[in-house]
Amino acid sequence: MNPSVYTKRDVNYIIRAAEPEDAKELSEVRWKIDGETENLDRVQGEAHLNEHRFRQLIMDDSEKACNLFLVAEADGKIAGFSRCEGSSLQRLAHQAEFGVGVLQIENRGHAGRNFIFHDQDGNAFDVWSELSPSYRGI
User: Fold this and answer.
1) 43 with 78: CB under 8 angstroms?
2) Which domains does the chain possess?
3) Which of 33, 36, 98, 111 is the most exposed place for a label (fewest CB within 10 A)?
4) E strands along the chain, which residues?
C-alpha cells in the first residue's frame, strides 16, 4: 500500500500501512487513547498490548490478505490507527471487525472532527456524530 499524504492547516498527515518499527509508538499511543476516552471497549491498562505484542500483530496482519492495519501520522508522529480483521473462512468472508483509535487533537486543525464512512450503497455514517457538539446531520 502506498502512503497517502495530506496537508491541512500547515499540518502534514500521512496514512500508511503499519510497520513492525511502529510497535513501540503504537503501544504508547493506544495506552494514551484508552485513557482519553470512555467510548472504547476497555479502560486504560486493560488488554494492554506491549511493544512485542504490537510487533507480532503487525507482522501477522501483513501476511493475511483479509487484515489491514493502518497508522495515521501528524507531523511525523503516530496520531491514530485503524485495524480491520477479516475472516479467512469462506462463509464469514463478508464479516470484519474494525477498530479506530485517534489521539485527542490539540491545535492540529481538527483532523478527527469529521470521520465519515460511506457504505457500498453510498450512505454516509459519521462515526463521531454523538460525540461532536458541532455535528450537523448528514
Assistant:
1) no
2) 4-108 (3.40.630.30)
3) 98
4) 4-8, 11-17, 67-74, 77-86, 96-102, 116-118, 124-126
Separation of alpha carbons 1 and 72, rounded Å: 14
DSSP annotation of 12: E
pTM: predicted TM-score of the whole model, two decimal places = 0.72
- pLDDT tens digits for 23-35? 999 999 999 988 8
Chain-centre distance for alpha carbon 23 = 14
pLDDT tens, residue by residue, 79-110: 999 999 999 899 998 899 988 888 875 544 44
Residue among 101, 115, 105 at smallest CA distance from 44: 101
